[in-house]
Write a structure and sequence with these properties.
25% of the residues lie in helices and 17% in strands. It has 20 helices and 33 strands. By secondary structure, the chain is an alpha/beta fold. The protein is flat, with a radius of gyration of 31 Å. The chain starts with a helix and ends with a helix. The longest helix has 16 residues. It is found in: Membrane.
Length: 732
C-alpha cells in the first residue's frame, strides 16, 4: 500500500468506532462533502475508501491504484448515479460488488487490467446507460453476452490493443444504442451475425486494421447505423476494397474517416462506394493521410449521389500537395453539394472548373490554407459558386483587400464573408463588393485605418484586434460593431451608425468614461452623463468662480465613481433584504451562468448546446441573450440569480480578472453560499490555483477550498463523464 492508503486505513481502524460513516469517509477522502459529489481521484488509494453512504450520487476514484473491488465496498452507496474507476489497476471484481447499485447510470472501468468480463458484474445494473470498458486486457467478451441485463444501455465503449475476437451472441440483450465504440486494432475473428441483435445504433465508432473483419461488421449493420465513424484503418490495397463493396448498400446518413490512410489507387473505389450509398448525406475526413497527387490509376466510375450534401475535410495530409492535380475526375459529382469545408489542408488553389460545378453550394470554408490574392481570383472565377451565401477565408495568405473584394463581387448571394487573420495592412478608399454582403469579419488583419472601402450594406462588422485609432465610417444599416483590442481613445459617433444595437469596445484606450462601467453592455442600455457627452461645455461652466464648490464636488465624484458606488450600495442593500429563495412560481431558469467574455465561445457554443439540447433540456440564463435591454446591468444580475434554481460559475483566469464576474459572485452570496444551500455549481474551465485568485475574490477563494468543483477535461473520452456530472448537479 502507499503511504496515504496506510494512513487512511489506520485512521479508519482507530477512529471508526467513534466516528459516523460520513466522518470516516471525510478522513479518507477530504473532498467528499454534502454536495453529493465525492472526488477521490489521484489520491494514491489502493482500495475503495470506507464510509460511503446513500447520500453520494457521484463517486470519482479514477487515477488511483485500486486492484480489487470487494462485495462490501459499495454496499451502502445505494443512490450512486456515476461510478468512475478508470485508470486504476483493477484486475478482479467480486461477482456481487455492484448488487446495491440499481440506480447507477454511468460506470467507467476503462484503462484497468481486467482479463475477462463477467455477466454477473452487470446483472444488478438495470438502470445503467453508459458503460466504458476500453483499455483493459481481455481478448474477447466471453462465450455469451456480458450485457444481456443492460436493457437501458445507451453507450458502450469496449476494446483494447489485445482484443481479437467477437462471438455470436456477445451483444444479445442490447437492442438500441446511441453510441457503440469498438477499439479493435487486432480484431481479426468476427463471427458474422454477432451485431445483428442490435436494431439501431445512432453513432458507431470502429477502429480496426483487418479489412475482412471490418467488412463483416458493416454487413451486419447495413440498416442499423445512422453515423459510421472509421478510425485508424488503412485503405491502401485495392484488392481488399472489393470486400467493402457491401457498404454501397448501407443506410448510413453520415460517414467519417479519422486518422485513416488512402492512396491514389484506392480513392476512386472509395468514392464509387460512397456515391452508391442510398441515404448518405454527409462525408467527413479528419486528420487523414493521402499517399498520392490525385493521379487516379483508374477513372472514377460513379453515379452522382442524389442525397450527399455535406463534405468536410480537415487536416488532410498530402506530402506532395503542390503536385496535386486539378480534380477534373470528380467534377461531375459536385453539383448537389450545399456545404463544403476544406480546412487546414494546404489548399493553394480551387480549380475554376471545380468552382463552376459547385452549383448548389451555399457554405464554403477554406480557412487555414494557402490561398493568395491571385489564386483566389482564379478560384472564384465567373460562374463559380453561384449559390454561395457563406464564405470563410480566414487564416490564408490574402494581402490585397481591394483585389479580394473584386474577386468575390460577382457572388450575388454572398451574405457572410470571413477574411480574418490575413494581412491586409493599408486599404484603399474604393472597393468593389458583393451587393448583398451583410456580415464582414476583418479581425486580426493588421489594418491601420478604415476607409470607405468597407461596404455600406453591412449589418455586422468585426474589426477587432487591429491597430485602429478611430472609427468614423458611415454605415446606415450596421447593427453590430466589434472593436475589441484596438487603440481607440473615443467612442464612434452615433450619427453615422444610427441603427447600431450592440458594440464591443473592450481592451481599447478609451478615456471618455469608466470602461469597467460599460464594457459588455448593450448600446441601447448605456446612458452617459451630461459631463461625458458635453465635456468641453461642462469644463467651461465649471471653471467659473460662481460654481467653484460645485466643480470640486463633481471632480471628486467623477474621479472616485461616487455615483457608481451609491447605486452599487443601494443594489447591495436591496439584495440583502430580499428572501433567501424566490417562490417556486418565480423560478424561470435551471441555472444562471456567470462567465467571462473571454470564455464565451466555450459557454455559448459547447456548454449551452449540450445542456439546452439534452433530454429533457435545461433552461439557462445568459447575460447576452436573456438580460432585459435598457435595464441596469446590476438589476439584471440580481433578478436573473433570483429567478434561477442554480448559479453556474465558469471559472478561469479571465473570470477572476473580470469586475462583472465579481459583482455576480457578490450578489449571489446572500442566497447561494450560506451553510445550508448548495445552489452554486463551480466549473473549472482551466487549471487555476486558489492562491492565484485576487484578494478581492475572497468568497471565491473560500468556496474553492470548501466545495467540490467540476473540471473540464481536454480528453474527448472524459468529456461525457463531465457532462453527466454537471447534469446531475443541475438536477439536484
Amino acid at each position: 500500500m502507499t503511504t496515504h492508503s496506510w494512513q487512511v486505513w489506520a485512521i479508519y481502524m482507530v477512529l471508526a468506532p467513534n466516528l459516523s460513516e460520513e466522518q470516516v469517509l471525510k478522513q479518507a477522502c477530504p473532498s467528499c462533502d454534502a454536495t453529493q459529489l465525492c472526488n477521490c481521484s489521484s489520491m494514491g488509494l489502493d482500495f475503495i475508501p470506507p464510509g460511503l453512504t446513500g447520500k453520494i450520487t457521484t463517486l470519482n476514484l479514477a487515477h488511483n491504484r485500486i486492484k480489487h473491488i470487494r462485495s462490501q465496498d459499495l454496499q451502502q452507496a445505494v443512490n450512486l448515479r456515476a461510478l468512475l474507476l478508470q485508470s486504476n489497476k483493477i484486475s478482479s471484481i467480486d461477482k456481487d460488488s455492484f448488487r446495491s447499485l440499481g440506480k447507477l447510470e454511468l460506470l467507467d472501468l476503462s484503462n484497468n487490467s481486467l482479463a475477462h468480463l463477467s455477466p454477473e458484474w452487470f446483472e444488478p445494473l438495470f438502470s445503467l446507460q453508459h458503460l466504458h470498458l476500453q483499455g483493459n486486457s481481455y481478448r474477447d467478451l466471453g462465450e455469451s453476452s456480458p450485457f444481456s441485463s443492460l436493457r437501458n444501455l445507451s453507450s458502450l465503449h469496449l476494446g483494447n490493443p489485445w482484443f481479437s475476437t467477437i462471438r455470436q451472441g456477445n451483444f444479445e440483450g442490447i437492442e438500441l444504442l446511441d453510441k457503440l465504440w469498438i477499439d479493435g486494432g487486432r480484431l481479426s475473428q468476427y463471427r458474422p451475425g454477432s451485431l445483428k441483435s442490435i436494431k439501431k445504433i445512432n453513432h458507431m465508432i470502429i477502429s480496426i486494421k483487418s479489412i475482412s473483419a471490418f467488412s463483416a461488421i458493416v454487413r451486419d449493420l447495413l440498416y442499423t447505423v445512422t453515423w459510421l465513424e472509421v478510425r485508424k484503418t488503412a485503405f491502401s490495397i485495392l484488392s481488399e476494397l472489393q470486400l467493402l463493396r457491401v457498404m454501397s448498400s448501407s443506410f448510413a446518413k453520415k460517414i467519417s474517416f479519422k486518422q485513416t490512410l488512402l492512396t491514389d489507387a484506392t480513392v476512386p473505389e472509395i468514392i464509387s462506394i460512397l456515391e452508391d450509398m442510398p441515404k448518405l448525406v454527409e462525408v467527413e475526413m479528419i486528420d487523414c493521410r493521402l499517399l498520392g497527387t490525385g493521379q487516379w490509376q483508374m477513372q472514377i466510375q460513379a453515379n452522382q449521389s442524389q442525397t450527399l450534401r455535406v463534405l468536410t475535410i480537415e487536416k488532410l495530409s498530402i506530402e506532395k500537395f503542390y503536385l496535386f492535380t486539378d480534380l477534373h475526375a470528380v467534377d461531375g459529382l459536385l453539383s448537389l453539394l450545399t456545404k463544403v469545408t476544406v480546412e487546414n489542408t494546404k489548399v493553394f488553389l480551387v480549380p475554376c472548373s471545380v468552382s463552376q460545378y459547385l452549383l448548389s453550394l451555399e457554405y464554403l470554408d477554406l480557412s487555414a490554407n494557402l490561398l493568395g490574392d491571385q489564386s483566389l481570383e482564379h478560384s472564384a472565377c465567373q460562374g463559380g459558386w453561384p449559390s454561395l451565401q457563406t464564405l470563410n477565408l480566414s487564416q490564408n495568405s490574402l494581402s490585397d483587400l481591394e483585389m479580394t473584394g473584386k474577386s468575390l463581387s460577382h457572388l450575388r448571394n454572398l451574405i457572410l464573408l470571413d477574411i480574418s487573420q490575413n494581412n491586409f495592412g493599408e486599404i484603399p478608399d474604393v472597393c468593389e463588393w458583393p451587393k448583398n454582403l451583410k456580415f464582414l469579419n476583418l479581425s486580426s488583419t493588421q489594418i491601420l485605418k478604415l476607409t470607405t472601402c468597407i461596404p455600406p450594406t453591412l449589418e455586422v462588422l468585426d474589426v477587432s484586434a487591429n491597430n485602429l485609432k478611430e472609427f468614423g465610417l458611415q454605415l446606415p444599416f450596421l447593427r453590430e460593431l466589434y472593436l475589441t483590442k484596438n487603440h481607440l481613445k473615443t467612442l464612434p459617433g452615433a450619427a453615422p451608425i444610427p441603427n447600431l444595437v450592440a458594440m464591443s469596445v473592450r481592451r481599447n484606450k478609451l478615456n471618455g468614461f469608466s470602461r469597467e462601467e460599460f464594457e459588455g453592455v448593450q448600446v441601447g442600455a448605456v446612458h452617459l452623463s451630461l459631463m461625458e457627452c458635453h465635456r468641453s461645455l461642462m469644463v467651461s461652466l465649471l471653471c467659473a468662480l460662481v460654481v467653484l464648490v460645485m466643480l470640486v464636488l463633481v471632480a471628486i465624484g467623477y474621479k472616485y465613481h461616487a455615483v457608481w458606488y451609491l447605486r452599487m450600495t443601494w443594489a447591495w442593500l436591496q439584495a440583502k433584504r430580499k428572501p433567501k429563495r424566490a417562490p417556486l412560481k418565480d423560478i424561470c431558469y435551471d441555472a444562471f451562468v456567470s462567465y467571462s467574455e473571454h470564455d464565451s465561445d466555450w459557454v455559448e457554443n459547447i456548454m449551452v448546446r449540450e445542456l439546452e439540447q439534452a433530454c429533457p433540456p435545461f433552461r439557462l440564463c445568459l447575460h447576452k441573450r436573456d438580460f432585459v435591454p435598457g435595464k441596469w446591468i446590476v438589476d439584471n444580475i440580481i433578478d436573473s440569480i433570483e429567478k434561477s434554481h442554480k448559479t453556474l460559475f465558469v471559472l478561469s483566469e479571465h473570470f477572476v480578472q473580470s469586475e462583472w464576474c465579481k459583482y455576480e459572485l457578490d450578489f449571489s452570496h446572500f442566497r447561494l453560499f450560506d451553510e445550508n444551500n448548495d445552489a452554486a455549481i463551480l466549473v473549472l474551465l482551466e487549471p487555476i490555483q486558489s492562491k492565484a485568485i485576487p484578494k478581492r475574490f475572497c468568497k471565491l477563494r473560500r468556496i474553492m477550498n470548501t466545495k467540490t468543483y467540476l473540471e473540464w477535461p481536454l480528453e474527448e473520452e472524459q468529456q461525457e463523464m463531465f457532462w453527466f456530472n454537471l447534469k446531475i448537479a443541475l438536477k439536484s
